[in-house]
């Protein structure tokens, strides 16, 4: 849970920086590993990677915290339940593009509420597989 909280805060920070970005200005983004306290990084190095802190790469720390976001969240039955109970087609909308846009928006909101929004980019085929469709 601690990793999930951290990565959610880091993602919010990245979204704020993206909002400030222009064609002429790109704000500096603090790397994931530098957003955590030195003591916490030392403990991660000591107990999770079994290496000295100076041998831990930024890529390892990034992967470490991203694992918190997806740990235990690959329950596709849960996704199937969410998709079948929360999504519906509004037949009052005039064109197909409106239907698709509304469904995509509802899907993202439902996944975001369950902190599973990462699946839209990481596992899109799983979201739209025939197994997840209603019979």
Descriptors:
135 residues; mainly alpha; 2 domains; 7 helices; flat; disordered C terminus
What percentage of the residues does DSSP assign to strands (E)?
Answer: under 5%
* Structural shape: flat
Overall helicity: 55-70%
How would you classify the helix and strand content by structural class? mainly alpha
- Quaternary state of this entry equals single chain
Radius of gyration: 19 Å
Count of separate DSSP helical elements: 7
How many distinct domains? 2
Q: How would you sum up this structure, described in words?
A:
The protein has helices spanning 2-20, 38-49, 58-70, 76-86, 96-113, 119-122, 124-127. By secondary structure, it is an all-alpha fold. It starts with a helix and ends in an 8-residue tail after the last helix. The chain folds into two domains: 2-70, no CATH class; 76-132, no CATH class. It has seven helices and no strands. The radius of gyration is 19 Å and the shape is flat.
List the helices and strands and how they pair.
Blueprint: H1 2-20, H2 38-49, H3 58-70, H4 76-86, H5 96-113, H6 119-122, H7 124-127
Helix pairs in contact: 1-3, 4-5
Short summary:
With 135 residues, this protein is mainly α. The protein has 7 helices and no strands.
């Amino acid at each position: 849970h601690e990793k999930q909280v951290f990565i959610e805060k880091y993602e919010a920070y990245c979204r704020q920086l993206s909002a400030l970005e222009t064609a002429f200005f790109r704000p500096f983004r603090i790397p994931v590993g530098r957003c955590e306290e030195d003591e916490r990084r030392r403990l991660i190095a000591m107990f999770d990677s079994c290496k000295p802190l100076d041998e831990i790469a930024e890529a390892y720390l990034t992967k470490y915290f991203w694992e918190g976001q997806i740990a235990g969240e690959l329950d596709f039955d849960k996704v199937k339940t969410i998709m079948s109970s929360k999504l519906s087609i509004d037949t009052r909308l005039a064109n197909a593009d409106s239907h698709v846009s509304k469904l995509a928006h509802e899907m993202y909101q439902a996944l975001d509420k369950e902190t599973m929004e990462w699946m839209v980019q990481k596992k899109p085929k799983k979201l739209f597989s025939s197994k997840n469709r209603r019979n």
